[in-house]
Amino acid sequence: MTDIPTTGASQPAPVLPATESIASRDCPVCGTANAAESTFCEACGADLVVAVRASGEPQPPADVSDDTLLASATPQTAPAGEESPLDVGWTGAVPSSAVGPVTEDLTCHACGEGRIVDGYCDHCGTPPPNPRDHLVESPTAWVGGVCDIGKRHARNEDAMSLSATEAPGSRAVLVVCDGVSMATDSHIASLAAAKAARSVLDQPFPKGVGTPDAWAAGAGRALTNAVARANEAVAVSVVEDVPNPPSCTFAAAVVEDDVIVAGNVGDSRVYWLPDGVGEPARQLGRDDSFAQEQMAAGVPRLEAETGPHAHSITRWLGKDAPPDLTPHLTTLTATPGWLMVCSDGLWNYCSDAEALRALLHDAAGRLDEVTPTTVAQALVDFANGQGGRDNITVALARLAGRGSTTTTEATATAPLEGDPTDG
Amino acid sequence: MADFTADVFQNEFLPDGGTDVHAIVRVTSTGASAGTTSAGLPDPGSAAEVILIDTSGSMGRRGVQAAGEAAKAALAEMVDGTLFSIVSGNGTAQIVYPYSHQGALVPMSAHTRGEANRAIDGLRANGGTAMGTWLTLARQIFETVPHVTKRHAILLTDGVNEGETPRSLQAAVQSCVGAFQCDCRGVGDQWRVDEVRGIASALLGTVDLIPAPEEMAAEFEAMMRASMSRGVANSELRVWVPQGAELLFVKQVSPTLEDLTSRRTVLNPLTGAYPTGAWSDESRDYHVAVRLPARTLGQEQLAARVQFSLGGDPVAQALVKAKWSNDDSLTTRIDPAVAAYTGQAELATVIQEGLAAKAAGQDDVATAKLGRAVQLADATGNDDMTTRLKKVVEIDDADTGTVRLKKGASKIDEMSLDTASTKTSRVRR
């Protein structure tokens, strides 16, 4: 078992029931599932036909459901009208039209009086909220996240994709991608990247010989593979040659039986924020940014992160990505604590890991109900309260931990990670 | 069947705290010409025309004769089947054709055209000028054919309204609003541009100056041809603005300037309708300005929904939007069409105010206003207007708008400048 997890080419391709064969067409802009015959997104009005054309052949793995992806990353569909023997007992892909806004409520959310006509309220003129502007995911009770447009940007170019299995600490995937705002259509690129990466990371990692090192090596390869697939997804999201091809950052963390593997490219971050005060809070991996380079050269964090080029990133995903996209990898065994994946929209206002831990505990302390989603929302509210200058994404996993505090720097990247920058 | 399209030209981006949205809505009709209706033939009896000829004493024998020739030229352009009537006006108004036993209007045919021409030959100059009575008679004539929706009149005058008060003229004009459209022409230099413009403007028509009687025939022919080509009547512009917004103005800005703001009829609390008369194959531009309560950055709002409707049914629509942004490169741009028409509207205003001040003897005001007009015309490359202005003022420096009032500028040149002021040049996209 030395292989990178494959997309199940050796397994028989499942054939979806004909009636569900063209189940859904996910909007590349806001992520809403639409009926397959839709040409425009029900939620945000984006042109789905162009988007599908843009994504080219073969299409990036469709985000249908976990079960489908476990069975195969490239589900085949039966020709219309043909019944497949596999239809019997099929419990796979759930047509997402069931969860999509099939019967749209046309009442205006802003004034409550008018109805939405031609995309605007006929009373107060307000368009319906763009679902992409504020996304909430709560795959299970122990994993959740919030992705928000913030207060100053006209578009939410952050994207988030989460999945988790029911048992706490068993398995979770948290991916955050931050579209580069100077590039064209980065909001489409970031969502495509996040979904592509998650579909790779949803595959269980190879256990290898069963040692922690073997697991870490397999997990590292899976993350590297996820970055590669995400990068491809960004590249095909561009319709034609544009001066600024879409690009985005990448930060992901996978939990498997209370062991964490994290990886990032760009300046979106993974933080480990343990409950125990004896164990330091830390950023897992490091930024690919001008600020990080300055800090490596001895410039203090505050100065580097508020300098003129603080937000210039040195590595990113996209057509014009640098050749080396190996993510900064970290593996560690969880103690009770919070695993966070976030975009710079949050850490701009609280970069230091210890400060972030304190902030999180403070925010959680004010909540009646502490869940990953409510805490993520509280942190998004914090960032918006500070000005919300950028899109904000916070994804959290609540871990009970195994009790061990052993951490291991991954060996998948040649250079060892430097000292924890926040330590 | 006529097809209408509506396009909007605007910069939808507002800066932080910005409130005012300006947009040009271009309504274009195709297939609206009477000559291109589905059957390829105009529907007989679907249109009514009244020609109002000034036969006051000031017209003189030569003037009335020329006006008669002009009326005949107009009759020659009228499509057979069109209901028509000829009215002579002085201190009162009389139908000269059709003859009384034929009713107020008769369908055009070779026979009725011949009879009408002979009746016109009998016109004589005599008496005063009371245009209110002419318009009232025209309205009464049109009221005999309530089923005819396309109703058009041509009014010719050579003098100042007298024998009735401005108020009674105003009342007569108001009683005709919506009853028919009226194109007005003044011949010579003894009529008042603002008086006649008031009539034409209220009755959705044009106003122009005919310098000499001999030029009347060609002008009448052109007016009647234009009227005959209009195949669509009963149109209106509908403007919706959101709750809490203020509609600053609605102006037609092309082909001529016409402030429609005060012509609003309320359709519902958020929507007003503005009559736009009959259409041939053409396009007209409207400037809509809306004031919105400022929203926070990143927010979007529909600022106005502009619909073009025929007989009460919307047939084309344009959406005017507002988006608040902190991106200066987006918010500081002024849409070229909005800028051009805003400039042309100011040009028309300063010309009219300058000429009025000159007439009132306020030379310093006139000099300042006309100087500004010279400056605007020069800056926008409006050579036609610069040429007309040169006949009224001596230009020392067009850049700064430094001018002197021309001694002995002819009245007709001033009137020509006045009537031309509201004609705009189409902004190309």
Can you walk through the features of this model?
The complex is a heterodimer of chains A (423) and B (429). Chain A has nine helices and 20 strands. Chain A has helices at residues 48-55, 66-71, 186-201, 212-236, 290-296, 301-306, 344-347, 353-365, 372-385, and strands at 15-16, 24-26, 33-35, 76-77, 116-117, 120-121, 134-140, 143-148, 158-164, 171-178, 247-248, 250-256, 259-265, 269-274, 282-284, 317-318, 328-333, 337-342, 392-399, 407-409. In chain A, the strands form six sheets. A six-stranded antiparallel sheet of chain A has the order 7-8-19-18-14-15. In chain A, α3 (186-201) packs antiparallel against α4 and α8 (353-365) crosses α9. Chain B has three domains: 3-33 and 232-333, Immunoglobulin-like, CATH 2.60.40; 47-229, Rossmann fold; 337-420, Four Helix Bundle (Hemerythrin (Met), subunit A) (Up-down Bundle). In chain B, strands 4, 5, 6, 7, 8, 9 and 10 form a seven-stranded mixed sheet that branches. Chain B has a six-stranded mixed sheet with strand order 2-18-17-11-15-14, with no helix packed on it. A five-stranded antiparallel sheet of chain B has the order 1-3-16-12-13, covered by helices on one side. The two termini of chain B are 27 Å apart. At the A-B interface, β6 of A face β17 and β18 of B.
Write the layout of secondary structure elements.
The complex is a heterodimer of chains A (423) and B (429).
Chain A: E1 15-16, E2 24-26, E3 33-35, H1 48-55, H2 66-71, E4 76-77, E5 116-117, E6 120-121, E7 134-140, E8 143-148, E9 158-164, E10 171-178, H3 186-201, H4 212-236, E11 247-248, E12 250-256, E13 259-265, E14 269-274, E15 282-284, H5 290-296, H6 301-306, E16 317-318, E17 328-333, E18 337-342, H7 344-347, H8 353-365, H9 372-385, E19 392-399, E20 407-409
Parallel strand pairs in A: 1-4
Antiparallel strand pairs in A: 2-3, 5-6, 7-8, 8-19, 9-10, 10-12, 11-16, 12-13, 13-17, 14-15, 14-18, 17-20, 18-19
Helix pairs in contact in A: 3-4, 8-9
Chain B: E1 3-10, E2 13-14, E3 20-30, E4 47-54, H1 60-77, E5 83-89, E6 93-97, E7 106-107, H2 110-121, H3 131-143, E8 150-157, H4 166-176, E9 181-187, H5 193-202, E10 207-210, H6 216-229, E11 232-240, E12 246-254, E13 258-259, E14 265-268, E15 271-279, E16 283-291, E17 300-310, E18 313-324, H7 328-331, H8 336-359, H9 363-379, H10 383-390, E19 393-397, E20 402-405, H11 411-420
Parallel strand pairs in B: 2-18, 4-5, 4-8, 8-9, 9-10
Antiparallel strand pairs in B: 1-3, 3-16, 5-6, 5-7, 11-15, 11-17, 12-13, 12-16, 14-15, 17-18, 19-20
